[in-house]
Amino acid sequence: MKYTEITVRYGELSTKGKNRREFIGRLNGNVTKALAAFPDLHIYPKRDRMHIALNGTDSDAVIEKLSMVFGIQNFSPSLKIAKDVETLKQTALEMMQELVPVAKTFKIDTRRSDHEFELDTNQINLLLGDYIYDHIPGLTAKMKHPDVTLRVEVRRDGIYLSSQTIKGAGGLPVGTAGKAMLMLSGGIDSPVAGYLAMKRGVEIEMVHFFSPPYTSERALAKAKQLTAKLAPYCGTIKFIEVPFTEIQEEVKRTVPEGYLMTVQRRFMLRLAVKLAEQRQGLAIFNGESVGQVASQTLESMVAINDVTSMPIIRPVATMDKTEIISIAEKIDTFDLSILPFEDCCTIFAPPRPKTKPNLEKARFYESQLDGEALMARSLAGVKVTEIRSHDEFLTTDQIDIQSVL
Ligand code: ATP
Ligand code: MG
């Protein structure tokens, strides 16, 4: 079927005037960015739905991109025809005939914004229902849970028909909930946390700590590649590399082994908060999951969280590893995440970190360091880049390493 339009239905949307305008405005911007590769599209956001005129563009390619945009409940590729009853009957029949192999029951669902059209919604439902029933043997009408719903929309400029309703990504348009920093490591959990943050409308910027020469260029490239995987959900993502070598060396030199991890994490969090403040971020997101590893006990969170009063949101906090992995697989970050490129935490990880660190001790050990100066030097070396979905940072050989191990 050569579709002419995609009709987009909005997701969870507060009906209040100002919020609705902001929601629709953002969604329009995000859809426009997501579909930037298709110059012939015409996007019209309306109060209760959005219309994307295809102008000859292949609908499958557009659908693939559109299904990643948050704030969309569902959408339907549709066909525009002239406002003529005969054409309507014939087109409806043809659309249903294409679906007969899979459909046994159907329903017609008509909406009419042009009230001057010669038939009202009930008349259209009945007329098309009867016509299809008479012409396709074995197909029966069913009002509740039919196999196919043929949607008919009578608008001023024509009649739009669609037989498919494709599930959208749900959530809220990215940006409607403000901006936050995501602490992105190379692991499985933090990209999933980032995806979930965006799903709730939060614009994220990636904060990644790296420690050359202890961590390699490919570990950094891996974090960037993970960012590129998440970019289609929002267009582009800022990636902030924070040099962490000097802090890790100083912590390692000064702090007893049991507290190395706690103190390192306190520095990471402080730096993420500083960056958030500089960049108008309102919160920190991370990939911590309660009880998963030593740094993720509640006691440990107390000892680390102590450095800030900025909200720290942990979208995967209560998920089991298997639940996190199934999301990672769905968003296609899993295969990248398991590439064995060492990150800064694994290298400086003590063999036995304290699982229940004491807050006072953590504060005390940390006070032995000149934290302000260390942080200032780290922040002076920060590098920000903007990452798009098709950017490539790892070579195919590096990505394929898994299969040779
Ligand atoms: P992940 O799968 O996200 O790496 P993990 O199970 O390996 O998590 P940790 O290494 O303890 O857990 O890290 C916990 C969280 O701390 C991460 O989810 C991430 O948000 C943050 N974090 C850890 N290392 C880094 C890093 N190098 N840069 C930025 N954030 C980090
Ligand atoms: Mg990690």
TrEMBL record:
One of its GO terms (cellular component) is cytosol. It comes from the Bacteria. GO terms for molecular function: ATP binding; CCA tRNA nucleotidyltransferase activity; tRNA binding; tRNA-uracil-4 sulfurtransferase activity. The keyword ATP-binding applies. Signal peptide: none annotated. Keywords: ATP-binding, Cytoplasm, Nucleotide-binding, RNA-binding, Thiamine biosynthesis, Transferase, tRNA-binding. Belongs to the ThiI family. This is Probable tRNA sulfurtransferase. It comes from Lapidilactobacillus concavus DSM 17758. The lineage of its organism: Bacteria, Bacillati, Bacillota, Bacilli, Lactobacillales. The gene is thiI.
